């Protein structure tokens, strides 16, 4: 079978072909490895790919299937995993020097679920260091390039996962989303990306950035693939105290795209400062949804202006605590030839962390310090409550909310790296969903006049992934597919 055809198949199509003996797991992995060898260096979306291990695992999968012992119908399909999700025996670096050679002794629950279903670990994807960034320029292993234009960023922090799916170097991928780190790169790279409700997917084995905000989610070529992968990793886990035991009712067979009678809210506040092309394209899609039977309503989410300052106080405060464990004593990088514990801490952390991580640790430590806790961190928690109440009130009126995912399409590499505040503002439309703990998805809706992908964001009430996936499927049906020329 031609390699190009294999790379275009969805997860369900690959599964059907494996079940019907129309293709082998080795053929699938070989096709993706071929794409990686030809274009991986240009995009830099992976930190670790063990080609021998990928093929060996594919052969084992084929043997299981031949013997009638397939672990699931998806046994043998390769998947990319963001490099802050622990994988036993395969290094997990968080794109940081401080964890450059760290090999976890255990699997994250999300990855363990995929492994139990027979999915193959294709590789660990590049990212912003410790998931801190919006462009995947903050990686110790180099900048990731956007497959549509290698002079542009892929978004962040899950830029490697988004770029890998977009560039057909993985059929689907796991990422993590703390303030938009799945949805924003999905929009920039022209793929579908979903962040679930906080507590839907176990965080056990996800290297922590901001524990009250982090969630593992999925990227796919389409809505069904993103739903399939997300449903595979969802579910209660006793190892995660924030995990919630709720029915998983959003596998692809539950996603019909039927939005008749569904109440969809459009908040004007989310379109302020948005590019004219994105605003016009979303307006066009919303009108088509109205014609398809959706009840489109204007709503207000008035606290969006608080989202960025609230997020960057809470997230940095939690990061400063979480990253205190990297001290050169227990694991990870240790500055050589150092005597004295204070000098060891200082040198290890100075040499091991990148500029953006240091900036956020300093910001977080400051906001938690004596005399500033009430003025900054406590006030941010109150602001978070206002944002949560905003969404609670909105979901009394509507079933889902449509907004742009980003205010503009992908910006140039280096364009914002010298202006952290401008970079932080690029997350303004995605942050609120994390602060409120609600699910959100980005679906591609076409290319702008410069040939870069545009994304439409759909947010839903807690544990209502099914609603936003149905709206996403309806949007997908009225959009022409996009794919970069590799």
């Amino acid at each position: 079978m031609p390699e190009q055809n294999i790379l275009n198949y969805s997860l369900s199509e690959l599964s059907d072909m494996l079940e019907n003996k129309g293709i082998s797991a080795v053929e699938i992995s070989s096709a993706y490895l071929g794409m990686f060898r030809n274009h991986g260096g240009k995009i830099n979306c992976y930190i670790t790919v063990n080609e021998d291990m990928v093929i060996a695992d594919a052969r084992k999968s084929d043997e299981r299937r031949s013997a009638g012992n397939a672990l699931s119908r998806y046994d043998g399909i390769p998947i990319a995993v963001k490099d802050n999700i622990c994988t036993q025996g395969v290094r997990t670096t968080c794109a940081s020097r401080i964890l450059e050679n760290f090999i976890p002794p255990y699997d994250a629950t999300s990855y363990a679920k995929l492994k139990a279903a027979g999915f193959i670990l294709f590789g660990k994807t590049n990212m912003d260091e410790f998931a801190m960034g919006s462009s995947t320029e903050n990686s110790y292993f180099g900048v990731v390039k956007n497959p549509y234009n290698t002079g542009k960023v892929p978004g962040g922090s899950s830029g490697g996962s988004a770029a890998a799916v977009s560039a057909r170097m993985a059929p689907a991928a796991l990422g993590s989303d703390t303030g938009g780190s799945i949805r924003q790169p999905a929009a920039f790279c022209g793929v579908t990306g979903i962040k679930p409700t906080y507590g839907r997917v176990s965080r056990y084995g996800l290297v922590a950035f901001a524990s009250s905000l982090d969630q593992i989610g999925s990227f796919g070529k389409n809505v069904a693939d993103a739903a399939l992968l997300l449903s595979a990793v969802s579910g209660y886990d006793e190892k995660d105290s924030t995990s919630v035991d709720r029915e998983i009712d959003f596998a692809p067979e539950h996603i019909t795209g039927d939005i008749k009678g569904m109440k969809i809210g459009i908040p004007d506040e989310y379109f302020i400062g948005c590019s004219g092309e994105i605003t016009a394209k979303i307006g066009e899609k919303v009108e088509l949804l109205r014609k398809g039977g959706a009840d489109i309503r204007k709503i207000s989410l008035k606290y969006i202006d608080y989202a960025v300052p609230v997020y960057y106080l809470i997230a940095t405060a939690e990061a400063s605590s979480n990253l205190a464990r990297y001290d050169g004593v227990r694991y990870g990088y240790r500055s050589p030839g150092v005597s004295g514990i204070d000098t060891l801490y200082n040198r290890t952390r100075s040499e091991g962390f990148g500029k953006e991580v240091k900036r956020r640790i300093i910001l977080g430590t400051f906001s938690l310090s004596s005399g500033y806790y009430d003025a900054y961190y406590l006030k941010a928690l109150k602001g978070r409550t206002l944002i949560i109440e905003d969404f609670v009130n909105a979901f009394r009126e509507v079933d889902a909310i449509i907004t742009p995912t980003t205010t503009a399409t992908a910006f140039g590499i280096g364009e914002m790296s010298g202006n952290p505040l401008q970079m932080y503002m690029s997350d303004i439309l995605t942050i609120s969903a994390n602060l409120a703990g609600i699910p959100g998805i980005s679906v591609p809706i076409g290319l702008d006049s410069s040939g870069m992908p545009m994304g439409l964001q759909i947010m839903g009430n807690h544990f209502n992934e099914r609603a936003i996936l149905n709206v996403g499927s309806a949007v997908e049906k009225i959009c022409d597919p996009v794919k970069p020329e590799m």
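The domain at 1-486 is CATH 3.90.1300.10 (Amidase signature (AS) enzymes). The chain has a mean pLDDT of 96.
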